[in-house]
Amino acid sequence: MSNTNLKIGIILGSTRQGRVSPQVGEWVKGIADSQGEGIFEIVDIAEYKLPFLGEETENEAGIVNWREKIDSLDGFVFIVQEYNHSITAALKNALDHARAEWNNKAAGIVSYGGAGGTRAAEHLRGILGELMVADVRVHPTLSLFTDFVNGSEFKPADYQQQNIEAMLSQIDAWSGALYTIRKPVARV
Ligand SMILES: Cc1cc2nc3c(=O)[nH]c(=O)nc-3n(C[C@H](O)[C@H](O)[C@H](O)COP(=O)(O)O)c2cc1C
Predict the structure, then answer these.
(1) Which domain holds residue 112?
(2) Ligand 1 centroid to residue 90 C-alpha, Å
(3) What is the pLDDT of residues 69-87, one digit of tens each?
(4) 35: CA distance to ligand 1 center in Å?
(5) Does residue 168 belong to any structural domain of this protein?
(6) pTM for the full predicted model
């Protein structure tokens, strides 16, 4: 597989009504699509209606669909918002609902919050290590004060685009490399 065909999911980490994460996710997708490396799609946790882990009925459709979606992807961009100095409960629950499906893939983190969402992003890095997701170094941080109007309308500073492009390049390189150890026979 050439890197052009790698499938990268842009995972929206928040599910609350009135969330700003779709604005951030669409912006990242726009930049990614214009770079022309990889096939990008928004993955909205809210659409899967995941129950809390351990409270599910057997073969619950949302969980099956979630695992299939994660399995189908070669890499990820996590759109991470800081909730009480960590990631959302919705994102942690979604991460816990799959295991092997995450393994040996690459990811970047785009975070936001009063302090750029950095505390949440660092928590996520620890979790990704356990899931064998290789998180890249470049980490765009968006400020609720300077990259949003009134904390709700997304208006990123111009320089943020360069950060996104640098992160996407690293995801592209590592996703391609990790593909070779995951599905070596299918690689063309
Ligand atoms: C329960 C909760 C806890 C929050 N805790 C923090 C925090 O610790 N640090 C911070 O910078 N922002 C915090 N915020 C502000 C969020 O980062 C901000 O509302 C952001 O827009 C949430 O992302 P979303 O709109 O995509 O859900 C918190 C928001 C909520 C709802």
Answers:
(1) 3-182
(2) 13
(3) 999 999 999 999 999 999 9
(4) 30
(5) yes
(6) 0.96
